[in-house]
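Exercise 3.2. Students should predict the tertiary structure of the chain below and write it as structure tokens, then compare their answer with the key that follows.

Predict this chain's 3D structure.
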Amino acid sequence: MHPAVQARLDRTLGQAAQRHRAPVVRGFGAFLWDKRWFFVALAIGAVLMSFSPPEGLDRRGLILIAMSVVAIILFVTEPVPLPTVALMIILGQVVLLGIDSTSVAESLMSDSVLFIMGSLMLAVAVVKQKLDKRIAYWIVRMTGTRTVNVCVGISIVSGILASFIGEHTVAAMMLPVAITLITLTSEDSRKVRGLAAVLLFSISYGCSIAGIGTPSGGARNAIMIGYWKEFFFDPTNPETAKFLVDYLTWMLYCYPIFLIQLPFVTLVLFYTFKPEHRNISRAVVKLREQIRAEGPMKSADWVSIAAFAAVLSGWLTFSDTLGLGTVAIFGAVAFLVIGLVRWEDLNSGVNWGVVLLYAAAISLGVQMKDSGAALWVANNFLDLLSPLGIEGGIPLWTAISALTTGVTNTMSNGAAVAVIGPITLKMAAASGESPLLIGFITAISSAFAYLTVIGTPACTIVYASGYLKTTDFLRVGYRMVIVSTVLLIAWASLFWPLIGL
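Answer key:
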């Protein structure tokens, strides 16, 4: 983590400790007021759990839904530090669900969590070698110093890379670049609040909207391709060969949607946050001076680049067998062994609370899926559509997109498609809609996880910078959801028919 960011995080933690002091120090009334949303969330959870499970949902599923509601309220209102919510999720699984503590502990350390942890370690290593400054300067030389152009450049670079190698990787690469530009503009976070938001969300949203572009952009895409083949392909029927969607066919239908969303990312971000600096030329001057002072790239710089390139290559070639997380940890170990970064740097620079938060969120999402609670929510949502006459066409497409968006903001997009995909594809067959069209809408909508910190790894990674609040995600996220949904439905209705869907 950049030293200035770490210092700001320390100040923030100190302020948080001041807010969360014991009631005997600050007065019981003040304590209750500060924690009001904490107690409101617990009360709502208790009320939900007091009900008898509805038809199709067992007691375990009801408890999980209550836990999810409580967690979402605490994520948004933040009456306690977010890692506290993660610890509460862990306790809830053991105490309320009766799951063995060892099983809960095992569920916390998935490959995705290893990836988040390893990626944040690699980000610290990149900052330590000051490669982030050179990458930032390269981007600014292409875009110019106007803030809007820099944001467009960051979202384009992040998006194009993420569409082929996955959003996790790119977000980890680009985070130090944005932090460099922010801290060189001002080390006082209050003076760059809006600037930090537009730069960091440019990374997060650039990565998220790009993940739909190719099958390799995210696990959700491969899952949907597998469902099409499993549900609709018949080797004896040549007409079903269209359900064998290959790499280029996916790009033909989905890559343009990524491209048309790019300019809207910057428009929405600037409308929401209004950065304090319309031009970051002063930061660029400082950046250029620092790079000149450091002189030509040294042998350690080239070794760092080679090590990071090896990690990227590993993500591309070995992630299917070893996992993204294992490759990331390999990279962190390599930087430590070579001596390019010290453990003390990683220990102080990585936001371990964010790692814990993401681990607990994934664990809760897995339980929602395995218990059938997520499936129950999806089925009941779709049952609500029948009385409204939403049985096909654009209304059905919009409803499916909304359902997928809601689910994907509470669990990983891959898990969301795994749960929702079979339901929406069966609805397509029953309503006479094209399973390909409905499948594309489902997979693409799973990228609209803009509302929560734990929506996607890219959101979690940029939140780890310490510059963003949980309410920032909700504040800009709902606008992005509306824009992305409108663009998706417009593209599906106007252009997909022209290319044979």
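Discussion points: The two ends are 47 Å apart (CA to CA). Residues 133 and 287 are 7 Å apart (CA to CA).
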